[in-house]
Amino acid sequence: xxxxxxxxxxxxxxxxxxxxxxxxxxxxxxxxxxxxxxxxxxxxxxxxxxxxxxxxxxxxxxxxxxxxxxxxxxxxxxxxxxxxxxxxxxxxxxxxxxxxxxxxxxxxxxxxxxxxxxxxxxxxxxxxxxxxxxxxxxxxxxxxxxxxxxxxxxxxxxxxxxxxxxxxxxxxxxxxxxxxxxxxxxxxxxxxxxxxxxxxxxxxxxxxxxxxxxxxxxxxxxxxxxxxxxxxxxxxxxxxxxxxxxxxxxxxxxxxxxxxxxxxxxxxxxxxxxxxxxxxxxxxxxxxxxxxxxxxxxxxxxxxxxxxxxxxxxxxxxxxxxxxxxxxxxxxxxxxxxxxxxxxx
Length: 345
What we know:
Blueprint lengths: L12 E10 L5 E8 L4 H14 L4 E17 L3 H12 L2 H9 L6 E10 L2 E9 L6 H18 L4 E4 L12 H6 L2 E10 L1 H7 L4 H19 L4 E2 L3 H11 L7 H4 L2 E8 L2 E11 L11 H9 L10 H25 L4 H10 L2
Parallel strand pairs: 1-3, 8-9
Antiparallel strand pairs: 1-2, 3-5, 3-6, 3-7, 4-5, 7-10, 9-10
């Protein structure tokens, strides 16, 4: 087979910020790299970042983390599938011994399952250290498959990936159980700051969030989502830090919640499927390594801490862009005027 030369597709990138972040994972002001063709995004996130520096900061909390791979087995009937499932779930110690042969970082932490007729879908859930873990969990599943088939000879192989993961698809199971890092970012902004920097009021932002993000998404048939444009910030951040960009599909799921709190605006972004890693495939490029170093995500830390830091920074970035866009949309004409001024030559 002819070996083709690897080419590069340059994407405009700019450092935006700093963003003021607080929480147990990150507590500092930090600029972020965003690679995008949608150049107004830099200005939008930048406005949210400036607002953050005039507050106590964006509080980021990593709620949970897990990378998933679902495998599909076939039994003779549903009862056989159920018996096997109950037995498999009782043998976590043995399962993790098998998993340890594939990686020193992968650890099986949970199994969710569905039985459809005689089909047994196993959603294997792992922690994966500082890697996002796609290949790591697939390799672990590849090791588990022959062991399961040996232990349960009445089961048969069907697929190493059964779409119950669910990888690069917007599904209810990901929105409920999470895939990657489940992160919440929150900020409290005074009424005066809303007026001066965002040209709006807390009430207008809360009202628009309800009518646009919640009701609008519901009548559109959105799946476990109520946000304006998580995908914009995620894609720009993912491309700048060497992530698998297709994961913005499940990453774009998530809920914005806003309320008026003692005359201030409370604004939050919940992102249950934030899939990032500081090591692994895509990280070998010089500009990616440089960006990760500048973000403080290539330090000597316990396994997983660099990836959690990266996720917290990403979640704060999402909030900055989400806040700025919603504020702009409370004012007639502001969104389009910004695009015309920044994009039209």
